[in-house]
Amino acid sequence: MSMDSRGAIRWVSAVRTHEGKVRDRNEDAVLAHPDCDLWAVADGMGGHAAGDRASAMVIEALQAVRPAGHPATTAEHTMECLERANSGIRDYAATEHGGRTMGTTVVVMIGGLRHGVCIWAGDSRLYRLREDVLEQISRDHSEVRRLVEEGLISEEEADGHPNANVITRSVGASPELLLDTQVFTVVPGDRFLLCSDGLYNELPPQELASALGQGGVTEATRVLLQRALDQGARDNVSVVVVEAEQG
Is 0.85 topped by the overall pTM? Predict the structure, then answer.
């Protein structure tokens, strides 16, 4: 991937994670790694063995990423760390959980001067808010998204679909880790949201955009989480808000 390294951007961020109002355990994990301009959300697979441990192992692996000076190089290091996490989770499942399936989604954002990189597996998401327009940068690895893309169901039918929680990729579930990457542009004033499905399943896009634009990044995370809680927060909720400021 080729990206322009000129320009001046200063990144600011805030993170929050909460077990929600129904679950008694938080299987989400979040990361702010400002030395590398890297942020992440991992959502342990509910109903599987030790989802909270799987998400924690992914975040621990990403903490090993070191500053590389360019988002493309950081992305390469990130994918190597996620590969190691995939193997580590599988080994842990084999030795500690009798080989039962253990996994987690992950979405990673790497900030750059004019471009950034999104790396993901599963249905945790990255959005960009630019001039009040919200755009989803990641694309869900889910059974419902596959059905939509194949034209078998409509976007309207996808909402509330019985297979809405069935994901098709994760870290730890398979020997081969399949990651997607997306390069995106960055301009000063862009605001980014990384989140688990516990947030976007509670709030429609227009409300996500409204809350994401509230105040500074700390206030935006507070408002997003509170609105999810107000809607019942049926799942764990994780929110990472990152803003590109003029350097």
Answer: yes
